[in-house]
Amino acid sequence: MLSALVALFLLAPSGYPATAVPGRPALVRPIVEPAALCAADPQLVVSVTGFTPPRSGSASLHVSLRAPDGRTSHLGVAGIHPHQAFAAASLDDAQHFGFAVPRAAVRQRVVVVVALPQPAAGASVTIGEARITPAPQQSCGG
Amino acid sequence: MFAASVPGTRAIAQPRPQRREVSGLPMNDPILETLRDGVRILQNRQPGQGPTWTDMANIHGTDQGFNKCPHGNWYFLPWHRAYVRMYEQMIRSITSNAAFAMPYWDWAANRAVPQAFSQPTYNGAQNPLYVADRRNDYRVPDIYAGPEVMADIYGQRNFELFATSRPRGQTDLNPAWIKRGGVQGTLERTPHNNIHNDLKGWMPTTRSPMDPIFQMHHANIDRIWWQWNARGGVNTSETLWRDMPFTDNYYNPDGTMATYRPADLLDVEALGYSYGAQPRRVGSGLRTRADVRLATIFRVGRAASANVPGTERLIFQETPFALGIEGAAAVRGSNLSRALGEGGSGAPPPPPPLMRGSEGPSQVVALIHNLTPPTDDVEVLVFAGTGALPEATDVSSPNFVTSIGFFGGGGHNHEGISASVDLTQHLRTLPARSDEVHVRLVARPKAGGNASVQETVARAEVEVVIV
């Protein structure tokens, strides 16, 4: 029972910042900009404010969306380059990664899942924010 | 282009050295010889002898972090275009090989680290392209450069999604923006970043250009940008992007510093290199007539059977010789000139296919049928030109077009194996000699092999079509 509760807790989205380590993804509820609700090409921007590389090898971020019904769709992979530890003082200093998201997903209460696949012992990534925005230079209808 | 700046001098467009895929180059290819020589010279340079290998890498980054180079914003592509060109120009200068063009590693097509970089020695000497702590057995996985990833990259129509976006909040041309972050698109965040990181050694670090494979990686990124443009992708026209100066960011070959803006870096031919024939335009739903005609021929199998209106099929007279076959076909009227440009071969290529519109340029294509390799240890070299071909049957010949390799070919079926070779760009780069297209196929064992090869082309047939 206790383990089931722990698992539920781990699968629930957390607030910002959220940290992922191998075997324990970060789950966050994205901020949805109003203009994204009617944008032709909404995108998810994941802002990474901290990173520690694995003790050996390299680690990449696997980003997916989890719909309210539990289905998960893979959005893409991002690498932190240079592959070295960093900590951003603010979102302005973060590394930002964009992923196209289906328009239907914008109106759902989706959860962003950022995972560091194993093996990547010692690695961690801190998500400062996940935000769904219109594509650059787009607004409603554009 | 450069002649045009001299008053009274008529511009004469010269063919630009073509960047070629490094995995397809034989180890003794003159381009690789020049690259090894150039890297060796720069690595051995002492202070005072001109920019050293380390000096050039320090422009990108030092142990303290990135120096001049932008990552994670929309200056990433143009800045690195000029940076790779700096190495290309430097190597041309110090090796006195004006025909040198930086190769590229097309990791979407060839996943393994190129052999020219993974071998510690070459001809008994230390290989300057080899880095011991690089993962030389690395293979790029699908999640970084597989078909889905590449389709995502090429399918993007928004420049800032393709090429990474502007720095957040940018309002002016203050160079401080060059170091501020935008939103990384698929090209930068996925194949660019992860291949850097996975290769280890220097490559995951800010000093990554210390590893010569950096240039192969970034030349491929540059080629993808060029391809994206050629397929109809449009760069942003915003002055915040076009006019940002990269002041004194690059060495000239004489050691002085150079400044470029993205607006100076949009035309690779004007920068002194090319990537060969323009790729076919895709994604807009519109296709050139040449595309449609070729597709029809490929469906039927042979141009002779397809009988596609508007296509000229040249009657090819073949002659066997010791290592292969050779043939020639005469072109009627001015169709060859139209396909190659008004001046025939040697003339500047026509402008790239338009994003909108359906005419597009003509193409000259060799359709090679009935190759029957006895094993996979055979390759067929394709040479072409206008007028009789010189005797050379080596890949260093200017008439060399490409090499056809085989996988599972040893068990070929009775109809043999077919291949198509687009000759258009190749013929454009050669001097015009006649209205005859000559094609030669030479079968030879692959390096180190001793397969009997003549059977490979004994029954081969060639159709040359202008579509």
Descriptive overview:
The complex is a heterodimer of chains A (142) and B (467). By secondary structure, chain A is mostly beta strands. Chain A has helices at 2-11, 103-106, and strands at residues 18-20, 26-28, 31-32, 42-52, 60-66, 72-79, 86-87, 95-100, 111-115, 124-134. In chain A, strands 1, 3, 4, 7, 8 and 10 form a 6-stranded mixed β-sheet that branches. A 4-stranded antiparallel β-sheet of chain A has the order 2-9-5-6, with no helix packed on it. In chain A, a hairpin with a 5-residue loop joins strand 5 and strand 6. Chain A is built from 2 helices and 10 strands, in the order αββββββββαββ. Chain A starts with a helix and ends in an 8-residue tail after the last strand. Chain B is α+β, with helices and mostly antiparallel strands and 467 residues long. Chain B has helices spanning 30-44, 53-60, 76-95, 115-118, 142-145, 147-154, 159-163, 186-199, 213-230, 239-242, 289-300, 303-306, 335-340, 424-428; strands at residues 61-62, 65-66, 121-122, 125-126, 183-184, 246-251, 257-260, 312-314, 317-321, 324-330, 364-371, 378-386, 400-404, 417-422, 436-445, 461-466. Chain B has a 5-stranded antiparallel β-sheet, with no helix packed on it. In chain B, strands 8-16-11-14 form a 4-stranded antiparallel β-sheet. Chain B has a two-stranded antiparallel sheet with strand order 1-2. In chain B, a hairpin with a 2-residue loop joins strand 9 and strand 10 (324-330). Chain B is globular, with a radius of gyration of 23 Å. The chains are: A mainly beta (142), B alpha+beta (467). The A-B interface holds A 41, 43, 45, 58, 60, 76-84, 92-98, 100, 135-138 and B 61, 66, 71-72, 143-144, 149, 152, 158, 160-161, 165-166, 168, 180-186, 189-190, 192-194, 196-198, 200, 204-206, 208.
In summary, what is this structure?
The complex is a heterodimer of chains A (142) and B (467). By secondary structure, chain A is mostly beta strands. Chain A has helices at 2-11, 103-106; strands at residues 18-20, 26-28, 31-32, 42-52, 60-66, 72-79, 86-87, 95-100, 111-115, 124-134.
